[in-house]
Amino acid sequence: MANFGPTIANISGPTSATTGAATIGGPVLEELDVSIMVVVTANNPIVLTTAAGFAEMTNSPQSTGTAGQPPAVRLGVYWRRETSANNTNPVVAANGDFIYGNIFTVRGAKRTGNPIDASAGGILASASTAFSVPGATTTVPLCLVCAIVAHSTDIATAEASGWANADLVNFTEPSGADGSTISGSGGGFAFATGIKTAAGVYGASTGSLVTSSVQALFSFAIAPQVSTFDGSVIGAGGGTTISPRIIFPGDL
Question: Are 205 and 163 spatial neighbours (Cβ–Cβ below 8 Å)?
Answer without folding.
Answer: yes
